[in-house]
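Practice problem: predict the structure.
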Amino acid sequence: MLAHLARLVRYRGLIQTLVVRDLKARYRGSVLGFFWSFFNPLLLLLTYTFVFTIVLPGMHPDSVQPYALFFFCGILPWTWFSASLSEAANTLIAGGNLIKKVLFPAEVLPIVAVLANMVHFFLGLPILVAFLIYFQRPLDPLELLWFPVIVLVQLIFTTGLALLLSALTVHFRDIKDLLSNLLTLWFFSTPIIYSMQMAPDSVRWWLNLNPMAHLVISYQEVLFYVGPHGHWKWLMAMLVASIGTFLAGYFVFDRLRDSFAEEV
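Answer:
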């Protein structure tokens, strides 16, 4: 396992090439092309804002106002996370021709899925910055230093789950269907359309078991809430848990590696 893990650095050129190819192929033939990376999160934001400010007004306290900005701070990283897992689950099956090549490193495929969606996450940040400027939200430069740390923790955590799911889906194809339902439950168990303080005390302990809840809260503290924040301890715990998730995911992937070519 450690030998294969050490070789990942040597594959950085291949990973970069495949990420660029994925980004080009995603919007090939579309009129707007890469602009969909801006429009997709914006349209999603407008949809939820319409529902929770026009159709269902008054459901959120002043602590999460302006609601559009609060929501966008959570939905942007969630889209990166959910899209990465959905694509990674099927990436080995879709890339069967590549896997059957003896020298091709199969772990590159789920990693590419995560990195390609991370690029879309970064492309959506200008919209978030525009909302911050529009709503005149003050940002603490010291708090912003936590932003790359949060992104790194999410990258490690998401990559670990992507490796695990891609390896298991080769043998258990039902995972693809179960995953979509699981992600829906996971979404509503994450404080994105509501704040953690709005959750009843009886379920808040359960929400604290959700790793994505702490990542989303960390984004919200850096980008939305004003004042001193104390969630960095949870973030450091998430960093340790993310490294453990990555190593566990890569371990399972490495153990099943030899069966991929036969199963796909």
